[in-house]
Amino acid sequence: MQMTLEEARKRFPNGPEPIALQYAGQWIAWNNDRTSIIAHGANFGKVRAEAIAEGYPEPLMQRVLGTPFVGMA
Amino acid sequence: MRFPYSLSIARSIDAGDEIVILRPEVPIRVFGPTGAAELLALVDTGSDNSILPLSIAHDLGIETTLGKGPSASAYGGQRIALSFADVLLELSQDEVVLRWSSRLYFADFPGDSEKAVILGHEGFLDYFTATFDGENCVATLEPNESIPLS
């Protein structure tokens, strides 16, 4: 599903802020309650290790797709 | 188990505007010999298999075997060589913890190409009744009788 940022905020007023465009195409490591990004970058292992070093032994890792996704091509 | 869709900003295909894309991504834990990683993975009813970037297998010490069969076909006809391994997975929410062993496939994506974490039918969707609530942007997953719980 796609919508404008204004629509998203209106429909999900208590939802999380969308992940910013600056992280598109990167791995990000979330903190435990998924409210802040602890580390980010291109390499899965490095980003995860950085988050662990910051005191998050099992960070939630997410690959942020930079464009609309239509299957792996 | 109910999972709100994830929200991320991307550029639209038509005009290049900034838009919010909402996707059914769920947190899943993948276990390997050197540890476990929690991943937010895209639930993809169009994928026959569950596919992760090979870098995750390397990071968790998972030994993979290169498939002897044909490469997988991606959208647009591109062929993707996959390796595979049987891996312990966990899906949990609140007091419910589901853990099972599954065959996962791993793709060695070149360079900075999109490295999606895909939960397809084999290894994941086959074990659930899945509902995608487009209006409220919530995915609901209820395990079925076939899930091989560990």
Q: What is the count of β-strands of chain B?
A: 14
Q: What is the gyration radius of chain B calculated from CA atoms?
A: 16 Å
Main beta-sheet annotation of chain A = 3 strands, antiparallel
Regions of chain A with pLDDT < 50 over 5+ consecutive residues?
none
What's the total count of β strands of chain A? Answer: 4
CATH class of chain B: Mainly Beta
CATH architecture of chain B: Beta Barrel
Written description of the protein model:
- The complex is a heterodimer of chains A (73) and B (150).
- The two termini of chain A are 20 Å apart.
- Chain A has helices at 5-11, 44-53; strands spanning 2-3, 27-30, 37-41, 60-63.
- Chain A has a domain at 18-63.
- Chain A has 73 residues and is of the alpha+beta class.
- Chain B is mainly beta and 150 residues long.
- In chain B, strands 4, 5, 6, 7, 10, 11 and 12 form a seven-stranded mixed beta sheet that branches. In chain B, strands 1-14-13 form a three-stranded antiparallel beta sheet, with no helix packed on it.
- The mean pLDDT of chain B is 91.
- Chains A and B meet through strand 1, helix 1, helix 2 and strand 4 of A and strand 2, strand 3, strand 4, strand 5 and helix 1 of B.
- Strand 1 (2-3) of chain A pairs antiparallel with strand 3 (18-23) of chain B.
